[in-house]
């Protein structure tokens, strides 16, 4: 594996979008591939990091000196040092929010009945009942687990939970719920907030997690305003900005699936329908932003990595399954290596301007993996090894033919 040179004074930045646990696992695989295949860059020594939602989670780790391979061990493989993160903790019900709202029901009910009975200007029973909506919880799950986990992680030797003590600039983006304004935690005036709490705020997707109260204000997921917030890094001097976006709309056209005729998304149920809608909205918005960056920051290079629109694994993976997380991380790792090979002619001059080279061996080496395959015995193990070897050989031959 090639050694990486620090990026000091070259003004290299990283911006990572959100995407929930699925997006985080994909981004880890993509980051690991980029670390392996780019000579001259260390992803723990960049000049500026920007993260939103699940991307904030990973950006905070990288800025704290935790390389992609370590993040992979923590989030995907498990870690013997007690740092393993289980996405299932994100599903802990927000009991405190439920209790707070339940306690508000009696006074709200009395107030609604009183106004219905005595207020001549408001005689609608429906209007009175609508006031009861205030008793509905603001979120289903308890996001405090994120703060607690990261606070413990960043208080270990060599790390910090204080933006001001980092060696690199870190900006975690959230949305002020009451004003709708973007807030960059880590910027002056917002750098006294613990990093772990800023991550919780940036990941507080409305409806799933309650807003996070900080200094008397309430904050929610930064993706409400923009998808990547890459402009934050560009405004802070990044001249090469590497961007990772894990969510793209899925192209379910059966004619685009190599002859496979699957069910239409309208028949796949509400969760997948909502997922496709959300992906389409945020991706369209991101494309507009990328075009604007090209006009407004002509002296900077912005390089985006994201899944293919026909990538079924990214759309249908059950991220809370341990085996699925392993497969998705490996999938992202291999697909990013392939993408680097396909985009070689485009990327080499861009990266070269910033002292970075592509490692052809790392991009095409058969058998190179991020996640060790589970051990199997007998004929099943031999068959799996043979299949894996043939797949790797096919990828290597395609790359050699393309670049030879």
Description:
This protein is of the alpha/beta class and 404 residues long. It has 15 helices and 10 strands. The chain has helices at residues 20-37, 54-63, 68-77, 95-103, 105-118, 125-130, 144-154, 195-202, 230-235, 270-296, 312-316, 322-342, 344-352, 360-364, 378-403, and strands at 12-16, 38-39, 48-52, 169-176, 182-185, 212-214, 217-221, 240-244, 301-305, 357-358. The strands form 2 sheets. Strands 1, 3, 4, 5, 6, 7, 8 and 9 form an 8-stranded mixed sheet that branches. Strands 2-10 form a two-stranded antiparallel ribbon. A hairpin with a 2-residue loop joins strand 6 (212-214) and strand 7. Helix 1 packs parallel to helix 2 (54-63), helix 1 (20-37) packs antiparallel against helix 3 and helix 1 (20-37) packs across helix 12 (322-342). Residues 1-9, 255-261 and 375-381 have low confidence and may be disordered.
How far do the termini sit from each other? 22 Å
Broad shape: globular
| Low-confidence blocks of residues | 1-9, 255-261, 375-381
The structural class is alpha/beta
Count of helices? Answer: 15
The total strand number stands at: 10
Tell me the β content. 5-15%
Residue share in helix: 40-55%
What quaternary form is this? single chain
N to C succession of SSEs = EHEEHHHHHHEEHEEHEHEHHHEHH
The value of Rg in angstroms is 23 Å
Integer average pLDDT: 83
What can be said about the biggest beta sheet? 8 strands, mixed
Short description:
This protein has 404 residues and is of the alpha/beta class.
SSE diagram, text form:
Elements (H helix, E strand, L loop, with lengths): L11 E5 L3 H18 E2 L8 E5 L1 H10 L4 H10 L17 H9 L1 H14 L6 H6 L13 H11 L14 E8 L5 E4 L9 H8 L9 E3 L2 E5 L8 H6 L4 E5 L25 H27 L4 E5 L6 H5 L5 H21 L1 H9 L4 E2 L1 H5 L13 H26 L1
Parallel strand pairs: 1-3, 1-8, 3-4, 8-9
Antiparallel strand pairs: 2-10, 4-5, 4-7, 6-7
Helix pairs in contact: 1-2, 1-3, 1-12, 2-8, 7-8
């Amino acid at each position: 594996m090639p050694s990486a040179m620090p990026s000091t004074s070259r003004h290299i930045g990283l911006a990572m979008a959100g995407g929930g646990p699925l997006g985080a696992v994909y981004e880890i695989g993509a980051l690991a591939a980029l670390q392996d295949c780019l000579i001259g860059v260390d992803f723990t020594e960049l000049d500026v990091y920007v993260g939103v939602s699940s991307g904030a989670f990973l950006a905070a780790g990288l800025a704290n000196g935790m390389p992609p391979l370590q993040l992979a061990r923590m989030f995907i493989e498990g870690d013997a040092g007690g740092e393993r993160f289980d996405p299932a903790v994100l599903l802990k019900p927000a009991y405190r929010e439920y209790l707070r709202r339940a306690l508000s029901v009696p006074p709200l009910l009395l107030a609604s009945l009183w106004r219905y009975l005595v207020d001549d200007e408001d005689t609608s029973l429906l209007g009175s009942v609508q006031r009861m909506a205030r008793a509905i919880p603001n979120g289903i799950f308890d996001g405090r687990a994120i703060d607690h986990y990261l606070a413990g992680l960043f208080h270990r030797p060599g790390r910090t939970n204080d933006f001001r003590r980092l060696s690199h600039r870190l900006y975690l983006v959230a949305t002020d719920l009451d004003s709708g304004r973007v807030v960059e935690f880590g910027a002056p005036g917002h750098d006294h907030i613990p990093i772990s709490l800023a991550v919780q705020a940036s990941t507080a997707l409305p409806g799933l997690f309650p807003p996070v109260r900080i200094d008397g204000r309430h904050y929610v997921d930064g993706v409400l305003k923009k998808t990547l917030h890459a402009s934050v890094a560009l405004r802070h001097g990044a001249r090469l900005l590497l961007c990772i976006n894990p969510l793209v709309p899925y192209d379910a056209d059966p004619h685009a699936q190599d002859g496979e005729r699957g069910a239409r998304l309208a028949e796949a149920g509400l969760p997948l329908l909502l997922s496709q809608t959300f992906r389409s909205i945020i991706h369209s918005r991101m494309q507009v932003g990328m075009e604007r960056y090209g006009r407004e920051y002509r002296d900077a290079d912005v390089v985006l990595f994201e899944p293919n629109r026909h990538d079924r694994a990214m759309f249908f993976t059950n991220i809370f399954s341990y085996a699925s997380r392993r497969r998705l991380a490996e999938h992202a790792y291999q697909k990013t290596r392939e993408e680097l090979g396909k985009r070689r002619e485009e990327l080499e001059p861009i990266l070269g301007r910033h002292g970075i080279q592509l490692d052809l061996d790392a991009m095409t080496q058969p058998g190179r993996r991020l996640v060790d395959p589970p051990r199997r015995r007998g004929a099943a193990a031999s068959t799996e090894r043979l299949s894996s070897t043939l797949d790797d050989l096919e990828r290597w031959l395609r790359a050699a033919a393309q670049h030879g």
